[in-house]
Amino acid sequence: PPIAGSLCVAIVESPQYKTGGNYDNILRKHFETPRLVKAGDVLCIPTRHSADFLSEEKAPQRWPVLYYQVKRQPGGQDRSENLCYLVDTKSTNVYLEGSVNAFAPVRLEGAVATDGGHPLWDSDCPPGLTSAVDELTVVALPYVSSSSAALLDGQCSVLLCGPSGAGKTVVVRAVCRRLNLHLAQMSGASLCRETAAAAEARLRSAFSRAAALAPCVLLVKGVEPLGRDSGGKEDARVTHTLRQLLWERQREAGRLPVLVLGTAVSRQGVVPGVQSCFLHELRVDRPDEGSRAAILQALAHASPLGPDVSLARLAQHTAGFVLGDLCALLSGACRAAYARVAQAWPCDDRQPCGPRMAGERDSSYVSAQFPQWNAPRGTSRHHRRPKRDVHTPIIGTVTPPFCYLCLIVSRLCFRKRGKVGYVTLERGVADFARACVSTDSVKGPELINMYVGQSEENVRDVFARARSAAPCVVFFDELDSLAPNRGRSGDSGGVTDRVVSQLLAELDGMHTSGDVFVVGATNRPDLLDPALLRPGRFDKMLYVGVSEDRAAQLRVLRAVTRKLTLGGDVSLEALVEAAPPCLTGADMYALASHAMMAAVKRKIALIERAEDTEESELVVEDGDFRAALGTLQPSVTEEELRQYEALRQRHTPA
């Protein structure tokens, strides 16, 4: 090709760098190697390790390239010839002339050195988020295409909803790479001001800046505070201004596109006026097991993994985790590995971060439990199966659907006498499913809200969280308070009836989710709405009674005292024989707790008489148990037991 005598380029407007900087040395170094260019080309010049390209925040530059566009045909030739010319610093004079708006070219993986960040953040096809990226690309593509953009009124406006850390920003960056768009980010809180006039001016300034950077995507992260006044109510002036800016004709006189995207955790947190401004609404849900495995594989691609690490198994144990949780999990595992190497003592790198992650995650998430079956070993045996533990029919119902997905999961309802350990049974269900099954324990009264429609929405959210964290066990405690007989409630608005109807609708729709199991518990089955007990809903009922034989009571007592240091004179068998015949699990726990308090008081008295020291171990002796046993009163009386027996015979099928 011919050698160009001169070359005129213009820096491309981009939100990632300042166009007014002095980048002559970078441009000269780039053309030290002969390059083939033609008019209209956009040059992608790396800036890593360049002294001329520094960050004002004294932090590593996170956008390692500069974009230049060739303005005029090299060599002064006519553009119609579409010729390519060879440019180098020895034979060509390179001129920099102003700035220009242009699409950002696609950077090939590995062709340009990055700033050390993970390749997942700059991928145009991020693992586990491909479906969301494809959906957003389909929505945005008509506004970018020159053939169809002229037929569309207004700008492309999309509201992305999803839990925090789900990867909404990663999805937007992937779409920008696919469509060759620049990305300008700002927070919704930065657009809020004390007065409506100041907020309106801030909005217009943000859109003017985005128009100057076109073609680009204006990403507003967290639009929940947008359009609210100082009192938290909707500001009509701000929402009207936002609607006016979004609905301005996009392509007039060849204007380049500007796409406006907003992110929110849920659409309920966005004021209605701002919701109506966005033409499209997409959701980035929690990843399923396959998507979690793909994300873990991508995140751990460059990390040395031990031979005992199974990412597929880890994906099963992280039900309900989002992209941010998985990043934090691997980061915690790396820190644990470094600590293990530094301290030179063996440990499992996954255990220190697994339970801690469940506690650090947002309370709205369905936390993955790590239940142990040691405690419920002592739970009372089934009333109608005197030779089998009560957990046997429960696990027999839950385990097969989790092991064989072709089976349909039914629902289970516990009928109980007081505090008999049904919560521990529910946790044991997840343990015996042979997978890290998430559990969502819901108290019935906490779903009831004073505002119209909020109670039904709370019920829908419970099942939505369960489906997103599948496999999952949803446990409704005090079910009679959530779903009593319809038509008998005293509220004038009929809130309880609507909640029961919503619960029935959700249960009827669970047949498509074979990896979600619903468990309910109540001590008043006679108050439940009869529609709940029909086949396909709570179609299996189990009666959880008290421990009526001494062997079962002994197992319960051993379970509740397993963490206590017992004296040599303590005989749990003798204590069980001396105890009342009808004690629940809560009564057994109260017995152990009162005995420990008696031991504490006895130890304090010995320390005050200088007969013992604080460093010595607390030992619970037989006298402490006898003192606690003398004040123990059973929580369930004989009369109540007879009433529960009558309810069992009435509701248990023959």
Commentary on this structure:
This protein is an alpha/beta fold and 654 residues long. The protein folds into five domains: 6-100, Vcp-like ATPase, Chain A, domain 2; 129-283, 3-Layer(aba) Sandwich (Rossmann fold), CATH 3.40.50.300; 293-343; 406-413 and 424-543, Rossmann fold (3-Layer(aba) Sandwich); 550-635, Helicase, Ruva Protein, domain 3 (Orthogonal Bundle). Helices cover 37% and strands 14% of the residues. The protein has 21 helices and 16 strands. It has helices at 24-30, 130-144, 146-149, 168-179, 196-212, 236-246, 272-277, 289-299, 311-316, 323-343, 354-360, 391-403, 422-432, 454-468, 479-482, 495-508, 550-560, 572-578, 585-608, 622-631, 638-651; strands at 6-12, 35-37, 42-46, 65-70, 85-87, 93-100, 157-161, 182-187, 216-221, 258-264, 280-283, 411-416, 438-443, 472-477, 516-522, 540-544. The strands form four sheets. The chain has a five-stranded parallel β-sheet with strand order 8-9-10-7-11. Strand 13, helix 14 (454-468) and strand 14 form a beta-alpha-beta unit. Helix 5 (196-212) runs parallel beside helix 6 (236-246), helix 8 (289-299) packs across helix 10 and helix 19 (585-608) crosses helix 20. The longest helix has 24 residues, at 585-608. It is elongated. It starts with 5 loop residues before the first strand and ends with a helix. The relative contact order is 0.07.
| Main β-sheet, spatial strand arrangement | 8-9-10-7-11
Instruction: Describe the global form.
Output: elongated
- Share of residues in helices: 25-40%
Rg on CA atoms, Å: 33 Å
DSSP summary: helix tally: 21
CATH superfamily of the largest domain: P-loop containing nucleotide triphosphate hydrolases
The main pleated sheet reads as: 5 strands, parallel
- The CATH class of the largest domain is identified as Alpha Beta
Mean of residue pLDDT values: 78
CATH architecture of the largest domain: 3-Layer(aba) Sandwich
Task: Tell me the CATH topology of the largest domain.
Answer: Rossmann fold
